[in-house]
Amino acid sequence: xxxxxxxxxxxxxxxxxxxxxxxxxxxxxxxxxxxxxxxxxxxxxxxxxxxxxxxxxxxxxxxxxxxxxxxxxxxxxxxxxxxxxxxxxxxxxxxxxxxxxxxxxxxxxxxxxxxxxxxxxxxxxxxxxxxxxxxxxxxxxxxxxxxxxxxxxxxxxxxxxxxxxxxxxxxxxxx
Length: 175
Description:
Oligomer: single chain
Order of helices and strands: HHHHH
Structural class: mainly alpha
Radius of gyration: 51 Å
Distance between the termini: 106 Å
Number of strands: 0
Helix content: over 70%
């Protein structure tokens, strides 16, 4: 299987490959155990091989196959682990980038919202000041009118101006 094909495999497939490899190692380990048991019982296939040297060569082949399978299994585990670490590092970097983008977008939203709020507050303040001025002008006008109406009434009703009324009238005339 090529490296490109291995990269396309998902986690489930990779784990299945590991399980298959471990089963193969178990099968080879069982064969090795059987061979060792046969060696211990001295029932090795000397009859078939014809000599102890030939039996030793057969056993060494089993040991070599077991060693090769174990080495292949360990290499596969290292490769899978390295790929998983690379994938995790890439995913972590992508997550960090997404988080950074979200934070930047939230900051832009905050700035825009703050600007809009300040503009609305300034508009509301301007409207309130205009309304307040208009109301004050209306109240001032009515007070002046009221004062003028009562001033004329006071003049009509007064028989003799007192010193205090005189100063009020002077004040009115100054206005």
